Amino acid sequence: MEKIVLQVALDLLELNRAVQIAREALTGGADWIEAGTPLIKSEGMRAIRTLREQFPDAVIVADMKVADTGTLEVEMAAKAGANIVCILADADDAVIAEAVRAGRLYGVKLMADLINVEDPVGRARQLETLGVDIIAAHVGIDQQMIGKDSLDLLQMIRKEIHIPVAVAGGLDPVTSGEAANIGADIVIVGGWIARSADVEGSARQIRTSLDSPTPAAPEKKSRDEEIRSLLIQVSTPNISDAMHRKGALPGLVSLCGNVKMAGRAVTVWTIAGDWAKPVEAIDGAAPGSVLVINNDGGVHVAPWGELATLSCLQRGIAGVVIDGAARDIDDIRAMKFPLFARAVVPNAGEPKGYGEINTEIQCCGQSVRPGDWIVGDESGVVAIPGERGYEVARRALEVKKTEARIREEIRRGSTLSTVADLIKWEKK
Fold first, then answer.
1. Does domain 5-211 match CATH 3.30.1300.10?
2. Which residue ranges are recorded for the region named Disordered (predicted)?
């Protein structure tokens, strides 16, 4: 190929939105337009026919993910107007052979998707022998969320086969440039372009990265630093959506207004108003931690105030959550410290020392364990199981991207009901 191809994946449900995004992406420098699997499942071959009608000179890729009936599915995609049809690399060899024969008959190329293949290098070699035209080093969305990397897969297969290699899976301008350096012939970008408020501009950024790739800076962040960086970029509603509307700690209010926190939980259980354990927990907490305090249901007496907050600032604590009350709010607000509680009361308790630190507790009806991720902003507080921190953070960022595109379409004159096509998707 004379240049690296930019393929934009339209993984949406609504065809009218997909057409508009495709138009903007092509203007921004995209070469190929992909009818993504969700779009094909939602709209059928109408999606491919419409894209062909709207963009008669474009290369249209049909991501059919063919697993069986190779001839039938390749035929219908080809007749609908596709130039390239995607099949699953782990389909049986008989399916691959039939798809290849159909591709030759109907004049379309076949792209084999290595998603979930156990031996990608070996299978890529077999597929080349079987007559497949393009191999796609693809890490799926759910795999990306737990940290699998499409560039690692690309690196494994690039030098092992002689046909064009595509790469897909969570790519942005930086990782697209890295893919170009590794030797990708086709770079497939979905969400970073299709969910952008400025599709044309985002496509142009990717195009620039492919045409003039620069060496990527070495990764310096630890996994916890990466998780915290992602969580700070998103809202608690984004996170709740990413967790299927779970994780919220209801009843908590940001007492300092527009502040944000994200960190691993240090949990405290204390008897109402006994502030000994909450204060002791500060000294043992690592910088960036969030103290989560169960005040045993009491809101008539506070286990927390200004001096404890000042101590947190000195220790680099990211924030405090109290299933109970706080006091000295005027002083704490002046510090702009992320403090979330259910009530404000002037009464303080006594430091008797009852309770425990770093044990599983209940906070606002939710279980919170030491090391869980806690995120708070003006919309409230959410708790994320510690082992799912990276996954949920990545999913929340995808939610934010989706909302950015919807917001832009509303600004252009649409409405939420129209964009979401609510009537079509109502339960029947």
1. no
2. 205-224
Instruction: Record the pTM.
Output: 0.85
pLDDT in tens, 250-301: 999 999 999 999 999 999 999 988 999 999 999 999 999 999 999 986 889 9
Note the pLDDT of residue 219: 65
For residue 9 the two structure tokens come to 């994946």
Q: Name, in order, each residue with C-beta under 8 angstroms of 248's C-beta and a sequence gap of 6 or more.
A: 236, 240, 366, 380, 381, 382
Distance in angstroms (rounded) separating the CA atoms of residues 151 and 153:
5
**Considering only CA atoms, which of 151, 96, 102 is closest in space to residue 127?**
96
C-alpha distances in Å from residue 277, one per residue of 280, 300, 351: 5, 18, 8
* Domain at 226-390: CATH architecture: 3-Layer(bba) Sandwich (3.50)
pLDDT band at 84 (very low <50, low <70, confident <90, very high): very high
Structural tokens at position 53: 């009608």
C-alpha distances in Å from residue 158, one per residue of 220, 254, 306: 26, 51, 59
Structure tokens at 212: 């003039």
Q: Which residues contact 142 (CB under 8 A, 6 or more apart)?
A: none
For the chain, domain boundaries: 5-211, 226-390
How many helices and strands, by DSSP H and E, does the chain display? 19, 18
What the block records as the tokens of 105 is 């008959």
pLDDT tens string 114-169: 998 989 999 999 999 999 999 999 987 787 777 778 898 999 999 899 999 999 98
- Give the tokens for residue 345: 């009361």
